[in-house]
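Incident log entry.

Two folding requests arrived from the same account within the same minute. Monitoring flagged them as a possible duplicate submission, but the sequences differ. Recording both here for audit purposes.

Request one:
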Amino acid sequence: MAKKLIWLWAMASALAMVANAADEASTKSEWVLNLSKKNYTLKHALAYETTIDNEDAIVVLLSAPAVSSEELKEARKSEKGGSDPLFQRPFLRLVFKKTGELKHWSASAGGTTMGRQSSKATGELKAQGDRVTGQAAMAIDPETMIPSSFDVRFDTKLIKAGEDLPAAGPNTAKASNGPVSTQVSVLTSDPRSSAMRRIELERMVIVKPTENRPNNTVANTSHG
């Protein structure tokens, strides 16, 4: 009986460790890229299907700025044409085969750009439905011309081939039968000084109710 309880406890502990690891990967919001002895924080993850070297592939991009729909389209176009795209810096681009093996990686940060690299890096990816999970790592080698390292785990949505990121558009609010208050932020520059000052303007936009048009919207625009 005691042995059975110990076995059950061990199994429960192992399952808990697996669940914690999965939760850590799915809630991870920052990764670190070390390039030329400098650390760069990457806050956005994007995984998408593409064509590289005439083969289907999956790219996992970790970057500081978010990637737009237009940037993704241009990246796929470059990759299909045999070129590696350059995203806004800093970024780490991991290219996986559809079977899950890490094919190569590239990165760019500060004034340093590294093209396709494959030696000494390890990684794997698993696609399930519309999500991918995996990891990639490379230990720093001080003897290389450009020292670099990373150790990342990811769990993110997969943008399938033929799918695009949603295009960015203005925020809208459903019209109501009364006035709608819209907060507008305007960033201005004082010509007499180099300092920037933010002026918060609040205005009232009166929406005229229209029968049988409940989906009428008012744009909420932010400048700055």
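Request two (distinct sequence, not a duplicate):
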Amino acid sequence: MPDPSPSDRFKPEMPKIPGVSTDDARPAAPDSSLNAPVKSEGDMEWQDWLVDESPNQESRLVESQELGQRKQMLAAALKQLTDRERRIIVERRLIDEPKTLEDLSSEYGISRERVRQIEVRAFDKLQKAMKNTVVEAASAASRKVEQRANRGAKLEAH
């Protein structure tokens, strides 16, 4: 067997794939840099054409913080309900496989219509409690802004 040429010695060994010749398995073009210009005289690089559609780090952080705030608001609002109202709301709206009115009516010994009425009343209470929390938070933020503005005006006056 003849000695391989120097260039053959440094070629990577291609895997043997049945029905595929080694010529077909080789890359069609040499590797290129994403920093290479698209045109010889242009400012545009190939990487400028790559777009990441996923949310950026700041968006993910904001979404995470907002979700945490909503969970806290919901937990606080749920505490304002009676045990039965809270259980019906959780069983009907906050679990992956909600219970039917029939299931809850059997459990509590009341009619399906009564369960529905309790659910509607409890949901209204939740909405009001959460809206009040949002309004209170906005008012508190507004007061802080006013206080900072007043402090700044006092400092400028001196």
